[in-house]
Design a protein that fits this description.
485 residues, transmembrane, mainly alpha, transmembrane helix, membrane, Polysacc_synth, Poly_Biosynth_Transport
Length: 485
């Protein structure tokens, strides 16, 4: 876990910096500098871009990670990397042409409830293409076991760019239409910078010869498009469907609630960057003992760290909603539901890394397609009935079912299980903290309440985790810094 711990720690820092900047943007700047309609539009546009991104990338970012370590000669590696760069164009070009021909029809369908959406479809497409190639170049760096710079670009760069655009909008340097174009430019520039970094690590040598295993690579890529789409749809289809069923302002309220809960996913997202190539390597080498150890360690570490963030959010959410515009508080129950989902994601550790890099991904895709259909149906039922809370219920149910099936599937095929008695004890601690602190606050202003309660919870939680030695890795890190002090 040395390489994992080192890069994960650096990735967590950059990810939290990004989320800190994102929190300022999401909770304060967007809500003050942009109308609710345009804020909702930004949420819809980015969600739709993420939904179609796996299609635009042809699944090559996952294919690169899975197969790179299986090539041993320079010629085969260069041929494979050339294929990775070219294949996305076989979908990007026809899909863009299809949108050009059917713009009015597609725009009219998506703008069923909110006409403003129709004017920004090309913005969405360009962002989706930029996202696709960014992930490819990030994967290019990952297989060289270098994730820190890419994670910084993924989590920090676009949020800083967005913040600058929001201030330029506020000071009337830009109008709202120019702001939307600027948003596209931020994602494009981020991709270009990532490309330069990736090519500096491993310069591409274009080789117009199909690599060995081409048929296997193509089959995996086609299926991983579905897999990537499933994972993204489970995260973002709710916002897209909200734009179809209810007023676009509601997406802004939902987007804030989702952002708050998604902070819990930061450790998992950070560690995932290095878990993917390591899991692929262990699977290619058939080193299942190392794979199982990675699975258990990642699960317990992510449960501990994610559990602390879960507590800080749930125990302070009522005070947090007091310091942002009151209309956003309608997302309170969404925060609760999605927070639990994100904590469950953390507890699964390297589960996704095992599945996406194993030979069993085909069956998982079948189950995933069924669950996407289920989520769409649930959204169709719950959103008209409960509004944004309905979208939260649909996401909660679909992701819990999906994660549970993946957990059982990995156990049935690899006889690997991430949980232990320690996991159960941590869960018990979390329940006691929620029962003990949720209904209690200091009698001060919301900000002071949040700070004081957070300090108290962090100190007590860290003390208990260290005292009971739940994680060898975290205890080792703590002892290292205690000895230095």
């Amino acid at each position: 876990m040395g390489l994992v711990a080192t890069q994960s720690f650096k990735n967590i820092i950059s990810t939290y910096i990004g989320f800190g900047i994102g929190a300022i943007n999401t909770l304060f700047l967007y809500t003050k500098f942009l109308s609710d309609s345009y804020y909702g539009l930004v949420g819809f546009m980015l969600s739709l871009a993420y939904v179609i991104m796996p299609l635009m990338s042809f699944g090559m970012h996952n294919t690169l990670v899975k197969f790179y370590s299986s090539f041993k000669t320079r010629t085969s590696i260069n041929g494979f990397l050339t294929l990775v760069l070219i294949m996305p164009l076989f979908l990007i070009v026809p899909l863009s042409f299809f949108l050009l021909l059917g713009y009015d029809t597609i725009g009219g369908f998506l703008a069923h409830k909110n006409g403003i959406i129709k004017d920004y479809l090309w913005h969405t497409i360009f962002i989706a293409i930029a996202l696709a190639y960014f992930e490819i170049f990030f994967a290019w760096a990952k297989v060289q076991m270098q994730t820190v710079f890419g994670n910084f670009m993924k989590e920090v760069f676009h949020r800083v760019g967005t913040m600058l655009l929001l201030f330029m909008l506020f000071f009337e340097v830009l109008n709202v239409q120019q702001f939307m174009i600027g948003l596209v430019c931020v994602y494009v520039v981020r991709t270009l910078i990532m490309k330069i970094y990736a090519f500096n690590l491993k310069p591409p040598i274009l080789t117009w010869k199909l690599p060995p295993q081409f048929n296997r690579i193509l089959k995996y890529s086609l299926l991983i498009i579905v897999a990537g789409s499933i994972a993204t749809i489970l995260l973002d289809v709710d916002k897209v469907m909200l734009g179809y069923y209810i007023e676009i302002e509601q997406i802004a309220y939902y987007n804030v609630a989702i952002f708050i809960a998604t902070v819990i996913a930061v450790p998992q997202r950070s560690m995932h960057q290095i878990l993917m190539p390591l899991s692929a390597k262990y699977l290619n080498d058939k080193d299942f003992e190392a794979l199982g150890d990675l699975y258990k360690r990642s699960s317990i570490n992510l449960t501990i760290v994610g559990g602390l963030i879960f507590l800080l959010i749930v125990l302070n959410i009522n005070e947090l909603y007091k310091i942002i515009p009151s209309e956003f508080s309608v997302g309170l129950w969404v925060v609760f539901m999605i927070s639990f989902v994100k904590l469950f994601d953390n507890a699964l550790g390297s589960n996704n890394s095992i599945l996406f890099n194993s030979d069993y991904y085909r069956m998982v895709l079948v189950l995933g397609v069924v669950l996407v259909v289920l989520m769409v149906v649930l959204n169709m039922f719950f959103i008209p009935w409960l509004g944004i809370n309905g979208a939260g219920v649909a996401t909660f149910l679909a992701v819990i079912i999906y994660n549970s099936i993946k957990l059982v599937f990995v156990y049935s095929k690899f006889k690997l299980f991430p949980f232990s008695l320690k996991t159960l004890k941590i869960g018990g601690f979390l329940i006691l903290f929620v029962l003990g602190f949720y209904f209690w606050d200091f009698n001060f202003s919301p900000i002071i309440n949040i700070v004081l309660k957070s300090v108290l919870v962090v100190v007590l939680y860290v003390f208990l985790i260290y005292k009971f030695d739940f994680s060898e890795d975290l205890t080792s890190i703590a002892n290292h810094y205690l000895r230095r002090s």
